[in-house]
Amino acid sequence: MMTSKDLLRFLRQAKEARRKALQRWNRQVVNGYRISCRPGCDWCCYQIVAAGLWEGALLANYLIQTKQNKLLEAVMRQGEEQAELYTELSHTEAADVWFVKQEPCAFLQDHRCAVYALRPTACAAHCVVSPAADCAPPTGKMVAGLDSEEPTVTSLLIDADLLRLMFGEDQAVAQPQPLGRVVALGAQLLLKGPGAIASFEVAHP
């Protein structure tokens, strides 16, 4: 059974693996394009961000270690609200409903990400090449982004490895869940161990 030390070691290795995947992606895909994203351009932060369990645990560990309890609670509260939408609607419909609400990610503070260095893969690999103004609602224009297959697949494989270590057998690849939801699961994992999370709940959200 995975111990807390095992988990922290796994998260360090996972973070490095994701960093290398993003580096390759930037070198092979992003370079050569004019990226519209700039500091303070944050319309993407008003969407539901889906993330893996390992990313939730990484962020939960950071918030716990830095004693940012209020932010942790706000993130988890937002995640539960978004997860409820996921149970009522398709993921696409839930994303549309949430965007209309215009409620920013709980990590967005003064138009900047409070956890930028640890942000989920969905955020780190989000690059817009169409005009930034097209991202703001309601333009009715299509927003053009870059293919992010390598970092996305890397993150999914890391999650599969984590589930294997937790439960000792191959699991179905977990579908990414709302960020606040996986942060809550990550906090349980860190504080109470793998037994606090049911196999079915993680592998089949």
Features:
205 residues; two-stranded antiparallel sheet; mainly alpha; two-stranded antiparallel ribbon; 4 strands
Layout: helices, strands, pairs:
Elements (H helix, E strand, L loop, with lengths): L3 H27 L19 E2 L1 H13 L3 H20 L2 H11 L6 E2 L2 E2 L7 H4 L24 H19 L9 E2 H14 L6 H5 L2
Antiparallel strand pairs: 1-4, 2-3
Helix pairs in contact: 1-2, 1-6, 2-7, 3-4, 3-7
Ends distance: 22 Å
User: Which strand order do you get reading across the main beta sheet?
Assistant: 1-4
Structural class label: mainly alpha
Shape call: globular
Instruction: Give the helix proportion (percent range).
Output: 55-70%
Beta-strand proportion: under 5%
The tally of structural domains comes to: 1
Largest sheet: 2 strands, antiparallel
User: Mean pLDDT, nearest integer?
Assistant: 88
Number of helices: 8
Could you name the ranges where pLDDT drops below 50 across 5 or more consecutive residues?
none
Radius of gyration: 17 Å
Order of helices and strands: HEHHHEEHHEHH
Count of DSSP strands? 4
